[in-house]
């Protein structure tokens, strides 16, 4: 970022190094989602751990659903606690350690180790999801309101590069291992160790340079830490009707993210079960798609603040609908590669734009709490979409094409809800709430 651009995009007192250190957490944690959730461990779980049973895909989505349900229960209160005690950075450190440790422990999962795999994936994904909410809550402190989309796009694009690094290192090892005649149950566990190590090392700049700018807030008398956190959350929820556009967008987010989370968690399974990809093919596909996603996040991040948050998201949802149709119709690898890269472009853009819009609608005194609600919506969608796909594939005896087609319905519903959001009204509501201490008086 050129020196003269700094004052245009970053908030007062925020250095380029600090903005970079914030974005580096996206770089660090994206390796987990890319390798564990999207490219390697999910397909390994179905093919090796469950021995390709018809219920294998549903078991994978059910394990993720449990972890997301736990995040939904804990995340908003965790955000409320972080706001009340100015503890975002401390909590982020705890969640990072948890995700790194349990990801490394996935290396112990072998053929038939169903319950060990289920417990560990629940734990790793729980810590990842909580950390994802916390790092997002720093965004409005770092960027000017007019540049939230741009700065969010920097983080997402750097995140996809991080995913590329983890996946590239894993692919290099897998290629060597396959050349040595090793089987998946021998080389996949090592990729979990590679991913955990890269997550730990890459997150170091975040904890060195990112500042905790918020101050402890006035506490509620006579209540313990946990009760206070839930009391603050309850206060926000009681006023959610006043944040009409934020509330509508969170509902919209649940539906369109249901489709996105389905693609993220089941892409490798679809590639192997429908298109006949092996582990190496799948990793190469996801690696290329990460490049496309990084480009999409960066390009749309730069366009978003000019084009508008709503138009940007609407454009990406149309792209997602096209992707689903192409994937459903794909009868050649070339056509499936096309669908995957359309998904990549839309993935980076829609994720970045959604995070920025929540920041735009959030009052300053409750940023972590409102991003906790954002996380709640995303995690609900992470249950809804993948479980729907898993159930359809199970009931239809492995018809993954039908399951993919049904996924497209979630993007259509999200697009319909998005049309009714008034972005200026939503922003003015947030500014008024900030002026009155985070609540709106009727």
Q: What's the quick description here?
A:
Helices cover 80% and strands 0% of the residues.
User: Which blocks of ≥5 consecutive residues have pLDDT under 50?
Assistant: none
CA distance, first residue to last residue = 43 Å
How many DSSP-defined strands? 0
- Mind telling me the C-alpha Rg? 21 Å
Plain-language structure description:
- Helix content is 80%, strand content 0%.
- The chain has 442 residues and is mainly α.
- The protein has a single domain (15-209, 229-435), classed as Growth Hormone, Chain: A.
- It is globular and about 65 Å long.
Topology (elements, then pairings):
Elements: H1 6-9, H2 16-39, H3 41-49, H4 56-85, H5 88-105, H6 114-136, H7 139-142, H8 148-179, H9 184-202, H10 204-209, H11 225-238, H12 244-274, H13 279-307, H14 309-329, H15 333-360, H16 367-395, H17 400-418, H18 423-435
